[in-house]
Amino acid sequence: VRAQVMELINSPGIDYDMIGGLDDVLKEVIESVELPLVEPELFEKIGIEPPTGVLMYGAPGTGKTLIAKAVASRANATFIRMSGSDLVQKFVGEGARLVKDVFQMARDKSPSILFIDEIDAVGGMRTHDGTTGSAEVNRTMLQLLAEMDGFDATRNVKVIAATNRIDLLDPALLRPGRFDRVIEVPLPDEKGRFEIFKIHTRKMNMAEDVDFEKLAKMTNGLSGADIKIITKEAGMFVLRRRGDSIKMQDLLDAYEKVVSEEEEQTSPYS
Ligand code: ATP
């Protein structure tokens, strides 16, 4: 399979303790993805089938990719990532075959987790007039459904898909035996933001005046990815003034910078 369409990591080395504020989400993912890979006999004993695929949805930068990598690490599974938008934009005419190839690879490299990012690009809803984006995208989608349906649930492959736009998703994807577990990945609450600040500053030299509680309070509405950028920016401020530790003021300045840049990006006048 062509390099850019997918990323393959043997065991990504992400630990659950690198994820802040998503305890409930993790519980669900462990139950529906990790357990069936690590202890399939639990399901067999009860006589139930683990979900074939899991769909995670939520705002950008909330940790969906991170979670998929963490489960793969914990289950000692190969992590294979494929981007739905790359499939339909960069590989026009090849989508259906690439989907086939990537599922074959997931079986060859099992136990494995196949992570399909931006699945809405492939499995977007048909438009009002009944037409879809293109026949090509349709073929890619049909191949994806065929692969999901042909999946033997006992095989050591789990599919995790992610989207920022669940409202755009074709309901056919959510039928039983396909993505039959749907999990919301929310923006972090105050406690979650506190944890995420701690996680991303773990290896940084923090001054005593840093008030993580205050930072968590003032960052309502920001994602985990935003918080990571704030901590990195703060580190750069310290570097520029040749300091040796990160002070509260550095984090406040970084916060201002990140928030004003985001506003610029979302402003209709920029
Ligand atoms: P997208 O929908 O844009 O693909 P995503 O939900 O997959 O985003 P990630 O790629 O997992 O988001 O997050 C980007 C980065 O932000 C992560 O590598 C991680 O460093 C940080 N991050 C996001 N959420 C969290 C979190 N809950 N805890 C710790 N770090 C986080």
Automatic annotation (TrEMBL):
Residues 50-189 form the AAA+ ATPase domain. The keyword rRNA-binding does not apply. One of its GO terms (molecular function) is ATP hydrolysis activity. GO terms for cellular component: proteasome complex. The keyword Coiled coil applies. Keywords: ATP-binding, Chaperone, Coiled coil, Cytoplasm, Nucleotide-binding, Proteasome. Belongs to the AAA ATPase family. This is Proteasome-activating nucleotidase.
